[in-house]
Design goal:
The complex is a heterotrimer of chains A (122), B (527) and C (576). Chain A has 122 residues and is mainly alpha-helical. Chain A has a two-stranded antiparallel sheet. The relative contact order of chain A is 0.06. Chain B has 527 residues and is of the alpha/beta class. Chain B has a single domain, classed as Alpha-Beta Complex (Amidase signature (AS) enzymes). Chain B is built from 18 helices and twelve strands. Chain B is globular. The two termini of chain B are 30 Å apart. Chain C is an alpha+beta fold and 576 residues long. Chain C is built from 19 helices and 16 strands. In chain C, the strands form four sheets. In chain C, strands 2-6-7-10-1-11-12-13-14 form a nine-stranded mixed sheet. In chain C, strand 13 and strand 14 form a beta hairpin. In chain C, helix 2 runs antiparallel to helix 3. Classes of the chains: A mainly alpha (122), B alpha/beta (527), C alpha+beta (576). At the A-C interface, helix 4 and strand 2 of A face helix 1, strand 8 and strand 9 of C.
């Protein structure tokens, strides 16, 4: 704790880039915020010993519920046909296709195709 | 007769039931109001009057066909929606340049439910970019003004929704609340805002800021409207693994029945930590007035302690930014949204595509939080920040659990101050973060809470701004019903809506007054 | 294998990723299948559209638990999902949902057999995660197809208990066999539904200290796993004995050169920023859930158990037993044959049955001329196209979705599919776990009973072996023009029908063979003279000529006997 942010490394991880001048500003702001956040180290979390599970969402909120509150898993489709339909909220792929920054149909009149990016160099 | 845009949802519903008015009348009233007022307030990012009128006609058909007024209460009611909800055939920008031209290919669950309730869609409201902010100043597109004083912010991030409800630009609205984004703007704009228990309203189709903190909720003119809006969208959704099959009660019915007697014998806790330094004097006074009121109504008011509240902002900013840094990785310029294309280097380099699209697509506050969150999760820092913050979150949950063993409900101010000036806190992000001190811990603890207007600042001064003060009521998990009922009694007793109105005088909108060139430029994108 | 310096010992651990055979994806209800139009099996969730959320597929959890139980892993009743963050065009969310600190299972083992000795290989963990999409590179662009994005995977991480490339391969094969048997995975390495990365290090024998390890990626066949590991071991040993050191890095195996090459250490920047997936609750498994899965399969179903049984009870050689148990369906077919053989009193030797399956039946599934014929026939059937569309699409890389599934370009498809083409044949041994297996077996085009009858005919000598094999091919072929019910091919012909129809009955009567022998002698006077004067190896030539005349229908045994009789008499009479 208390370390300064290695802003260049974090920029790389976050896929962001700031101009030289900007970096200084960000650096100062972020470190000021971080100084504030560092107060966390003072919090006495040893009080939680043995209570972790009791303080999980489902323990805390589910406990208050008289009805079923266990998270339900999604059933896998029973039939091939069922699996073919995935249209949550009436999903329309055409909207995605038409809006995509760069999209190429797999054949001239096809409704499907590829998103295009600059070559990935392995 | 009052103009229709001033009526509440339940009042409009009553008139629709009696067939005294039609939804097209209501909708027309709102569209006219928006055209007149919104160029100053800037609550909307986009409106679609034609679509709204179509929705209204459809609703009227439903109403006509149904006997005994047995149609959903939201039938024919014009609502606005924070621009964070995906809705087919609308743009969903999240007030970000990176999604400026993003058309929703599907409906969020909330929208799906509202459609089933035959609502009328007016438009999408302004917000802080990706819901990151407390003033709506972080919108990439426009600055929303507080209807009570247009030199001030409406709060945020659901500022457009709160300002819109307050100024009569919609009958009600849906916002989202990650650290106070419904309650704080509701407080600053003098309307009612409710953040339900985490898991009650599906997050599916709502653009994620911080998954474990985000909750959708209504902003409305009064408590009963809030109950109606909540009921219409709450419930288990198989598309959201964090939603649960909780029992959804008939909130409007319970609120309608709620009388003063329900307060009698209630134990209301007032956390000492919510009355610490930084609390504006007039705000303090108004909350104390309500405390007295509670006593008058027969409640027991108890000073309680939430000892770890002081850590809540720090824990919140670690958790929220960490989750956000990850949630916002999908905005990479590949499948949708903004992609940076360099004139001289069209295809370019993949890494540059990522970096430039994100750097130019995101606004400053969003980038600041992505940086903070990325740092908090990065190798060597995870334990000290993310892990520690998660533990502190449990401490805060424990604080509330302990408190609710002693009291039935907790009350205090929603925001330490009334609406602040535009630009006032933009220079210092930390000061902006600190303004969420009373709301943030509720999200960390998954609790339901709401803000209701209880008074006005500067009452005894002729020069001071007359700004609304909101009181926050915090209920135990899943006790939205009781919370709404208590809020309803306070609302009736205080009578805020009858006493105060935002000073949106007709003259205000005359040529040359209030409407600046800047405002005209930034006016809503009216189709 | 020989290392450059025998005093070194290799330490190997394997990370295996395998796709799960669910109907839908890990976190959305998109269909989990292979080879469809690009970006056609996508939805808001697997496209990572704003606002979309993952929901755990129970079917994937069941398969993961099943695999974990078979690998003797402890099932963790509470496990957590985590996000692994990195940017890549095939990773739409910018993070992969995986399990990190609390996997669904941990601490198991697998017994492998090395030269007759059992060895226990510890398994550190098996956890659930999702696959990424696919990238196709062409020129200065890359093409993103997200059909595969969100496919359920399990990752199985072994402890570094393997000491040689052979051990690694044997572990991998055993693991694959189990997963395929349990129908958790299709185990297809070439297509990447079963993938392996190897962590390799070397140390001076006897020392406990582990050397620096490298991770070898891109080994997509058993052969490559072996070659890559061997290369890597020797590379590391030679680095050390030449005074150098081994760098911790990821290396790619190049199957063309047989070498591993450094991925230029760009990996070093990887900081995945793992944290708990806030969109998913902890995965809680009840005792009942786990027990139901435990009871759904028996030990006897596992390939290693079957192998032992085959060797012991039917006296099969270990390699034969291995071939028969590699594919669960083949093993079921074999066992069904054994059962009928007994009940019908055919009395064919079990080894014979095994040989017929291994050398003849499976031969056809690897023979591209046969596959081509098979598919052509099948496609001519009314519903043939339907059967193939789903199963046999784009197996070429890069995908060629334009390829039509008609009889004309089937050859092109076969070529594109390469050696794995046979796995696209509609299953002769189709076993559908939702139906009674016995019922299914008898529904297949070539029933075990017909297969045995064919063997019997050959044993009786009414047809010769070669003809038998030909008939087998015919029995496997779908009849063009016949109705094909869903997933199934035509009502089969019987052996008798085929023999009769093609007039394939063996020519065994001595009279007609004698005539033919005389003809052959007359046609080849020079060879006959040489034979009489002592060139005995020409006997084979004459047998061949006679067989040619009968188009292979003569019983070779009869031909041989008669021929020798004639030659002996010629020798005595000096050619008259």
């Amino acid at each position: 704790m208390g370390k300064n942010i290695d802003i260049v490394n974090v920029m790389k991880l976050a896929k962001l880039n700031f101009e030289e001048a900007e970096i200084a500003g960000f650096d100062a702001e972020l470190n000021k915020i971080l100084d504030y956040i560092n107060m966390l180290s003072a919090a006495n979390t040893s009080k939680l010993e043995g209570l972790h599970e009791d303080l999980d969402y489902d323990a805390v909120v589910g406990h208050m519920s008289k009805t079923q509150s266990i998270p339900l898993l999604r059933q896998d489709a029973e039939e091939e046909k069922e699996a073919d339909v995935c249209a949550t909220g009436g999903f329309d792929f055409n909207v995605v296709k038409n809006d995509a920054p760069e999209f190429e149909p797999d054949e001239p009149d096809s409704d499907r195709g590829y998103f295009i990016v600059p070559a990935v160099i392995e | 007769m009052q103009p229709l845009y001033e009526l509440t949802i339940h009042e409009l519903n009553g008139l629709l039931k009696k067939k005294e008015i039609k939804s097209v009348d209501i909708t027309k009233s709102y569209i006219d109001r928006i055209k007149k007022i919104d160029p100053v307030i800037n609550s909307y990012l986009s409106i679609d009057p034609e679509r709204a009128m179509d929705d209204a006609k459809m609703a009227d058909t439903v109403i006509e066909k149904t006997s005994d007024g047995d149609f959903p209460e939201l039938t024919g009611i014009p609502l606005s929606i924070k621009d964070i909800y995906l809705m087919k055939d609308t743009k969903t920008t999240c007030a970000s340049k990176i999604l400026e031209n993003f058309n929703s290919p599907y409906d969020s669950t909330v929208i799906k439910k509202l459609k089933e309730n035959n609502f009328v869609f007016l438009g999408k409201t302004n917000m802080d970019e990706f819901a990151m902010g407390s003033s709506t100043e972080n919108s990439a597109f426009k600055i929303t003004k507080n209807p009570w004083d247009t030199s001030r912010v409406p709060g945020g991030s659901s500022g457009g929704s709160a300002a819109g409800v307050s100024a009569g630009l919609c009958a009600g609205s849906f916002g989202t609340d990650t650290g106070g984004s419904i309650r704080q703007p509701a407080s600053l704009c003098g309307v009612v805002g409710l953040k339900p228990t985490y898991g009650i309203i599906s997050r599916y189709g709502i653009i994620a800021f911080s998954s474990s903190l985000d909750q959708a909720g209504p902003i409305a003119k009064d408590v009963l409207d809030c109950a109606i809006l909540l009921k219409s969208v709450a419930g288990y959704d198989k598309n959201d693994h964090t939603s649960r099959k909780f029992e959804i009660k008939d909130y409007p019915e319970l609120v309608r029945k709620a009388g003063k007697s329900i307060i009698k014998g209630l134990k209301i806790g007032f956390p000492v930590e919510f009355f610490s330094e930084g609390l504006e004097k007039d705000v303090y006074k108004k909350i104390m007035d309500v405390k007295e009121l509670f006593k008058d109504l027969g409640a027991q008011t108890i000073d309680i302690s939430l000892p770890d509240t002081s850590y809540s902002i720090a824990a919140y900013y670690v958790i929220a930014t960490s989750e956000a840094s990850s949630n916002l990785e999908r905005y990479d310029g590949i499948r949708y949204g903004y992609r940076f294309i360099d004139d001289k280097n069209k295809t370019g380099d993949l890494n540059e595509l990522f970096v430039n699209s994100r750097t130019k697509g995101f606004g400053k506050e969003v980038k600041r939080r992505i940086m903070l969150g990325t740092f908090a999760l990065s190798a060597g820092y995870y334990d000290a920040y993310y892990k520690k913050a998660s533990l502190v979150r449990k401490l805060i949950i424990k604080n509330y659990k302990d408190a609710f063993n002693k009291v039935d409900m907790i009350a205090g101010p929603t925001s330490p101050t009334a609406a602040f000036l535009i630009g006032e806190k933009m220079i210092d992000p930390l000061s902006m973060y600190l303004s969420d001190i009373y709301t943030i811990s509720i999200n960390l603890a998954y609790l339901p809470a709401m803000s209701i207007p209880v008074g006005i600042t500067g009452e005894n001064s002729s020069s001071a701004s007359k700004l609304p003060v909101g009181m926050q009521i915090i209920a135990p998990w899943l006790a939205e019903d009781k919370m709404l009922c208590v809020a309803k009694v306070i609302e009736d007793t205080v009578g805020f809506a009858e006493k105060y109105k935002p000073p949106l005088h007709e003259s205000f909108f005359d040529e040359g007054k209030g409407r600046t060139a800047d405002m005209a430029d930034r006016s809503a994108n009216i189709k | 294998m020989e290392y450059i310096d025998d005093s070194f010992e290799a330490v190997i651990g394997l990370e295996v990723h395998t796709q799960l055979l669910t109907r839908t994806k890990m976190f959305c209800s998109c269909s989990n299948k292979f080879g469809q139009k690009p970006n056609s099996l996508v939805c808001p969730v697997c496209l990572a559209l704003p606002g979309s959320l993952p929901v755990i597929n129970e079917g994937a959890v069941k398969l993961a638990v099943k695999a974990a139980l078979a690998l003797n892993l402890n099932i963790n009743k509470k496990s957590l999902f985590a996000r692994k963050n990195y940017f890549y065009p095939d990773l739409p969310k910018g993070y992969q949902i995986s399990q990190y600190h609390d996997p669904i299972s941990s601490n198991g083992f697998l017994i492998i057999n090395i030269n007759g000795t059992d060895k226990k290989i510890r398994i550190n963990r098996l956890h659930i995660e999702e696959d990424a999409g696919k990238l196709i590179h062409a020129g200065d662009k890359s093409y993103v197809d997200l059909n595969r994005a969100g496919t359920p995977l399990v990752e199985i991480v072994s402890e570094p208990d393997l000491r040689s490339a052979q051990e690694a391969v044997s572990y991998l094969k055993e693991l694959r066999d189990i997963l395929v048997y349990l129908e958790v995975s299709d185990g297809n390495m070439e297509e990447g539904s079963f993938r392996c990365d190897a962590n390799v290090s070397v140390r001076k024998g006897g020392t406990g200290k582990l050397g620096t390890r490298t991770e070898v990626k891109n080994v997509n066949s058993f052969k490559f796993v072996e070659r890559a590991i061997e290369y890597e071991i020797n590379r590391q040993i030679s680095a050390i004995i030449n005074g150098g050191y081994v760098m911790q890095e990821t290396r790619l195996f190049d199957s063309k050169t047989g070498k591993t090459e450094s991925m230029r250490s760009k990996e070093e920047a990887h900081d995945y920023r793992y944290f708990e997936e806030p969109d998913l609750p902890p995965l809680i498994l009840s005792d009942e859930f786990v027990e139901n899965i435990r009871n759904s399969f028996s030990e006897a179903d596992l390939p290693s158990v079957k192998r032992k049984k085959y060797i012991k009870e039917y006296s099969l050689t270990p390699p034969d037993a291995e071939v028969l148990t590699q594919d669960r369906k083949v093993a079921y077919f074999f066992e069904k044959c054994i059962e009928i053989n007994k009940s019908k009193g055919f009395n064919i030797n079990e080894k014979q049955i095994a040989n017929w399956i291994i050398n003849d039946l499976l031969f056809y599934f690897r023979n591209s001329a046969f596959i081509s014929k098979f598919l052509k026939n099948a496609l001519k059937s009314p519903h043939g196209i339907d059967i193939f569309k789903d199963r046999f699409t784009v197996i070429s890389s890069p995908p060629r979705p334009n390829l039509m599934y008609d009889a004309e370009n089937i050859g092109e498809l076969i070529e594109a599919a390469g050696p794995s083409a046979y796995s696209y044949l509609p299953d002769i041994f189709k076993v559908d776990n939702r139906e009674n297996e016995k019922k299914i077996i008898t529904k297949t085009i070539m029933s075990p009973e017909n297969f045995l009858k064919l063997i019997l005919e050959v044993e009786k000598g009414s047809i010769n072996k070669n003809t038998g094999k030909e008939i087998l091919g015919d029995m496997l072929l779908p009849a063009p023009g016949k109705e094909i019910s869903k997933g199934m091919l035509l009502p089969y012909k019987t052996v008798e029908e085929i023999i009769k129809k093609n007039n394939l009955a063996q020519v065994s009567d001595e009279k007609s063979i004698e005539v033919l022998i005389k003809d052959v002698f007359e046609e080849n006077p020079k060879e006959l003279n040489d034979l009489i004067s002592g060139k005995d190896k020409l006997t084979g030539f004459f047998i061949g000529e006679v067989m040619k005349k009968t188009k292979g229908k003569a019983n070779p045994k009869t031909v041989n006997e008669l021929l020798r009789k004639y030659i002996a008499s010629y020798k005595r009479t000096g050619g008259n």
